[in-house]
Write a structure and sequence with these properties.
By secondary structure, the chain is of the alpha+beta class. It has 22 helices and 14 strands. A hairpin with a 5-residue loop joins strand 5 and strand 6. Helix 1 runs parallel beside helix 18 and helix 2 runs parallel beside helix 6. The longest helix has about 40 residues. The two termini are about 35 Å apart.
């Protein structure tokens, strides 16, 4: 047992590290695209000699980016639909992570060039080629992004395990996002032929783009090799979402929609400020090299902010963490407004603005992940990638708005075509600060207000949803083929007690769903021992991340659910050890699960074990023991007919 537990822990650690490294490369790519690419376009793609033509081209490129991103918003749910309907030996997600990572990285490297001088020699052709490359990169980035973050609800149904996985990933994201800020100017200056007042030249920016693209590509393969998508019966649908239903599925999930509105407004405001920070260092402070200090501070402090999320969420709840983070961001924007050219105050304001961002991201990601089960329970259909595609869609919406605002701000404030801090007028500085600080503050507060009024899906509500879903585990199995008939002279199955204890009638248990008989006929046991044994020869057809229940199908087609305790889903697997996996064939009497009764009692929960037969038709159902009697594990308790079971 110890060897199995160690091996399982080893796989978990490997998977988390691979996923974290994947997030590192993924967010390094995203930060480069959303924050630094527009800096390359506005300040380095053209020089002063291009004059009005260069300014006009910058406006065209900025407009193309914004328009293409808005157009692609309608494509993202279809990308989620495509991923949900992908079935391969590597799972739903990995193929798209690799394909998207490869194509996206190659195109990103090309975008950090003048495309062979087309930007000046043939501007119209440049704009056409640029638009084709950009939409190609954006679409395949979306496939990778949706596939990557959609793995979280596939990894576990347990909110706590999701928080751990997402926290690991967010640590990698934080480092990846901020390491770009640390290395961008050193790399640019190292490979540039001209320092250009500390801003570098086109050659340096091209080298920067190639390096980031290579890191993103390697990290995509790391995810494909190092992670494991855990299958579960609760993830399977008897019906697939049709193409026509894609947008309907999203629109009818009210919690998903309100959260989307919240995050869409918030992320647009946040992205505007983040994207203009390098401009602040370049054109207000007058020293772009100092931006490396901010990137270093954010990378270090951001890791601690991410690691603080699980304990903060546990102590205060995700909802309170969200509002605390919003408050800190608003204070940071106010500090920025009075920072002027004081480097200590600029750094303090910028760091305070960044620290809450990973916390808000994790809150949103957790609620989005939980909304998968919310929609599944409410509408009877599970759509993982389709639901999770909403977040990158909203990030792109924020990016589209941000790129448009940043491009226009740079033009209005005179921060283009090789300009320096001395070229920017006081009027230009005022416009810049209004767009960098005032507009985002209004947007962030608006998003927080919507979250406060409309988003109700929290940890407690999600645990209740999962508990209800687990009670519907066998519904899709009714359409499955019964295993091939096994030669037997018996027309009945003797069902052995899976647990030792006192036999009680199912209608006496405190769980209304089991007591009502809606789950099926059966019995309950007040356990005197913590071992759960297989009641017959058969296959494990359902396991649950919380390990407090298991579903079996006998070799003759009898379906049974063994559920340990009432409300034990909230224990999130603590006190439970599972010895079998889904798909295993077990012999009668083989140990399936071990549970520790004191842990259940300590949690203030009922440890009654409920046992139900979930086949719709069971012609013969005979109790072999009277209720109230003590039974030993492996003792005969039921006689069930094998006739008229589904073929």
């Amino acid at each position: 047992m110890d060897a199995e537990v160690k091996q399982s822990k080893g796989r978990k650690i490997t998977s988390r590290l691979a996923y974290s490294f994947g997030a590192f490369g993924h967010d390094a790519f995203y930060a480069t695209l959303s924050t630094y690419f527009i800096m390359f376009v506005t300040s380095h793609l053209f020089d002063k000699s291009s004059g009005a033509q260069g300014t006009k081209m910058i406006a065209y490129i900025t407009m193309i980016i914004a328009v293409l991103r808005f157009v692609e918003l309608a494509i993202d749910p279809l990308i989620g639909y495509a991923i949900d309907n992908t079935n391969s030996r590597w799972g739903h997600f990995k193929p798209w992570i690799v394909i998207g990572g490869t194509i996206g990285s190659v195109v990103l490297a090309l975008l950090f060039t003048s495309l062979g001088g087309l930007n000046t020699s043939n501007p119209i052709l440049y704009l056409i080629v640029f638009a084709i490359l950009y939409i190609t990169m954006d679409i395949f980035y979306s496939f990778k992004d949706v596939g990557f973050w959609s793995m979280i609800p596939a990894i576990s149904f347990d909110s706590a395990e999701r928080e751990k996985t997402a926290t690991y990933a967010r640590v990698g994201s934080n480092i990846g996002q901020n390491i770009v800020g640390v290395v961008v100017m050193p790399i640019v200056l190292m490979f540039s032929t001209k320092a250009n007042s500390g801003q570098g030249d086109n050659r340096g920016w091209m080298a920067f783009g190639i390096i980031i693209a290579a890191v993103a590509l390697i990290s995509a393969f790391a995810v494909a090799i190092g992670t494991k998508e855990n299958d579960s019966e609760l993830r399977k649908n008897t019906e697939k979402t049709t193409f026509k239903e894609v947008f309907k599925v999203l629109a009818r999930n009210d919690q998903l929609m309100w959260l989307s509105l919240t995050y869409g407004i918030y992320t647009a405001g946040m992205a505007i400020t983040n994207s203009l920070e390098l401009y602040y260092f370049t054109y207000i402070l007058g020293d772009a090299s100092k931006f490396t200090l901010l990137g270093s501070l954010n990378a270090i402090i951001g890791v601690f902010a991410v690691l603080a999320f699980p304990p903060l969420a546990k102590k205060f709840s995700r909802r309170k963490v969200f509002f605390l983070a919003i408050s800190v961001m608003v204070i940071a924007l106010a500090m920025f407004a009075f920072a002027g050219q004081s480097l200590p105050m600029i750094l303090t304001a910028a760091v305070l603005f960044y620290i809450p961002q990973p916390l808000i991201f994790l809150v949103v990601l957790m609620v989005l992940s939980d909304s998968v089960e919310y929609g599944q329970l409410k509408f009877g259909h599970r759509d993982e990638s389709l639901t999770l595609s909403v977040r990158p869609l909203l990030d792109k919406l924020g990016g589209a708005i941000s790129n448009g605002v940043v491009g226009l701000t740079a033009v209005w404030a005179g921060m283009t075509a090789g300009a320096t801090a001395g070229d920017v007028t006081s009027h230009g500085q005022a416009i810049f600060k209004l767009m960098m600080l005032g507009v985002p503050a209004v947007m962030i507060l608006t998003g927080a207000f919507i979250f406060f009024k409309k988003v109700k899906l929290d940890e407690k509500m999600h645990a209740q949803i999962v508990d209800e879903l687990e009670k519907t585990w066998s519904k899709h199995l009714e359409t499955d083929e019964t295993p091939a008939e096994i030669e037997t002279n018996s027309e009945v199955t003797i069902y052995h007690s899976p647990v030792a204890g006192k036999l009680i009638s199912l209608d006496e248990v405190a769980d209304k769903t089991f007591a009502s008989g809606s789950m099926g006929k059966g019995f309950a046991i007040q356990p005197t021992d913590g071992r759960v044994l297989a009641p017959f020869d058969g296959e494990v057809v359902a396991t649950f991340p919380t390990r407090h229940a298991i579903g079996l199908r006998s070799d003759q087609g009898i379906l049974t659910l063994i559920h340990i305790g009432i409300g034990t889903v909230n224990m999130r697997g603590t006190g439970f050890v599972q010895y079998v996996e889904e798909g295993d064939h077990v012999k009668q009497g083989e140990e399936l699960i071990e549970f520790w009764q004191p842990a259940i009692k300590k949690a203030g929960l009922d440890d009654t074990v409920m046992v139900v037969i979930t086949n719709k038709e069971m012609p013969e159902f005979e109790y072999l023991k009277d209720m109230g009697n003590l039974v030993q594990d492996n003792e005969n308790v039921l006689k069930l007919s094998n006739t008229e079971l589904p073929d």
